[in-house]
Amino acid sequence: MRQVESEIAAAAKAAGRDAGAVKLIAVSKTMPAAPIEDAIAAGQRVFGENRVQEALGKWPALKEQHPDVALHLIGPLQTNKVKDAIALFDVIETLDRPKLARVLAEALEQTGLRPRLFVQVNTGEEPQKAGLAPADTEEFVELCRDTYGLTIDGLMCIPPIDEEPSMHFALLAKLAQRLGLDELSMGMSGDFEKAIAFGATYVRVGTAIFGARPPLR
Predict the structure, then answer these.
(1) Euclidean distance between CA atoms 166 and 35, whole angstroms
(2) Which terminal residue of the chain has fewer beta carbons within 10 Å of its beta carbon, N or C?
């Protein structure tokens, strides 16, 4: 983890940015509680999970023990999991469709909870990936704000694995600027330095922190 933090700081400096402007999300999906505890003990305070159900199995106890830890949902959110998600996650990065916006707005109104919300943009317009097409993003953010009263804090993307990520990061940054959004969650283990050069405020790194993931069963 220290190596990743050092590389983030170096990339921020190279981009003329303050290292403190870029936060590391330690992606703890599939990891049991023990290595997460080790990362917390080493000073890490922001984590990311892909699935609500998996997170429910380990994070309530961890958050009770470490109330200063922030948890981000970085995987798709089903509408039937919204109430569980807003009760557990501090940030939901994968808001990407009107029905989800409506269900989130209703649940937030009922509970009074206020997780931060990012809109996921499918910058490569890949059919197998979640997220809005770039051309639809501005209209969707306006819908979230004006129709559902949601506060949108930022944008998130996952570039295609077979394309140069820089153009995707540049596109997301341009969209965020147009919409007046300050937060950009972009960049993973292989490309976070490029993401930082284009303004990432959060980078998502897993294997470099936790090592190889356990095989799926």
Answers:
(1) 32
(2) C
Residues 93 and 185: their CA atoms lie apart, in Å, by: 8
Take residue 94 and report the two structure tokens written for it: 């994968």
Angle at 104 between CA 74 and CA 122, to 5 degrees: 40
* 79 close to 99: Cβ distance less than 8 angstroms: yes
| Cα–Cα distance, 120 to 59 (Å, whole number) | 23
3-state DSSP assignment of residue 156: strand
Phi then psi for 171, rounded to 5 degrees? -65, -45
Phi, psi of 189 (to 5 degrees): -50, -40
- Cα 2 from Cα 213, distance rounded (Å): 19
Contact predicate 81/100, CB 8 Å: no
How many other CB atoms sit within 10 Å of the CB of residue 193?
A: 17
For the residues 163-190, what does the mean pLDDT come to?
A: 97
H helix count then E strand count, the chain:
9, 8
| pLDDT over threshold 80, residue 217 | no
pLDDT for 214 beyond 70: no
Q: How far apart are CA 26 and CA 44, in angstroms?
A: 8
**What number of other Cβ atoms are within 10 A of residue 124's Cβ?**
21
Tokens of 138: 């501005």
- Here the tokens at position 150 are 């949601």
